[in-house]
Amino acid sequence: MPTLYTMPGTCSLAPNIAVAWLDAPVTVENLAYGDHKKDAYLAINPKGQVPALRFEDGDVLTEAAAILAWLGATHGTADFARDTVLGRKEAEALSYMTSEVHADYAPHFAVQAYADSESAQAEVKRHAYEMLNNHYRRLDDTLGAAGDFYLGERSFADPYLYVLTRWIDQTPLSLDDFPALAAFRKRMQADPAVQQALARQNMEPL
């Protein structure tokens, strides 16, 4: 049985939720913070990041979007069909969320990689939060027009969007300024599968 490696507070929650939604035969192993940089895990994923999905033959798949795609292709039902308009839009949405929105959190999580002095770091963070505000406005507008789910019906874009609605609380931005996203987070947290995934990752609803 494949093993999904997760860690509290990370985007690995998205594939963790997908595993719960699909009731997929995947074991979830939650790492304590810091264990992702230890030799035992680096032997699995030298990038020292989660998520990672290790198969029984030793092969390892990394990156949340790739793992979500594998889950859908391997264990998906009609609700998670890939070769459909929904599947194509899901791939597009996940690409945006992972390669743009998530990437623009980098100065928030590790500003020291972008500037040395406190004043420069403050400037870098200010620009990052401006960019994130624009992203959240776009996400909120898209969700508001779509309905309960980001693409109009449930897809793997929703678990990743849920992660982003949690991360915003770490920034000066407020989810209250994005009413569609705020309502979405409440709906997701009422989902028993989401609650199961949160518990597996030693996390709680917000």
Number of DSSP helices?
Answer: 9
Please give the number of β-strands. 4
The fold-level CATH name of the largest domain is: Glutathione S-transferase Yfyf (Class Pi), Chain A, domain 2
Weakly predicted, low-confidence segments = none
Q: Mean pLDDT across all residues, rounded? A: 93
What is the CATH class name of the largest domain? Mainly Alpha
Distance between the termini: 31 Å
Structural class: alpha+beta
Task: Report the order of strands and helices.
Answer: EHEHEEHHHHHHH
- Physical arrangement of strands within the biggest beta sheet: 2-1-3-4
Structure description:
With 206 residues, the chain is an alpha+beta fold. It folds into two domains: 3-78 and 196-200, 3-Layer(aba) Sandwich (Glutaredoxin); 79-191, Up-down Bundle (Glutathione S-transferase Yfyf (Class Pi), Chain A, domain 2), CATH 1.20.1050.10. Helix content is 52%, strand content 7%. It contains nine helices and four strands. A four-stranded mixed beta sheet has the order 2-1-3-4, with helices on one face. α1 (13-22) runs parallel beside α3 (64-75) and α1 (13-22) crosses α9. The model has no long low-confidence stretch (mean pLDDT 93).
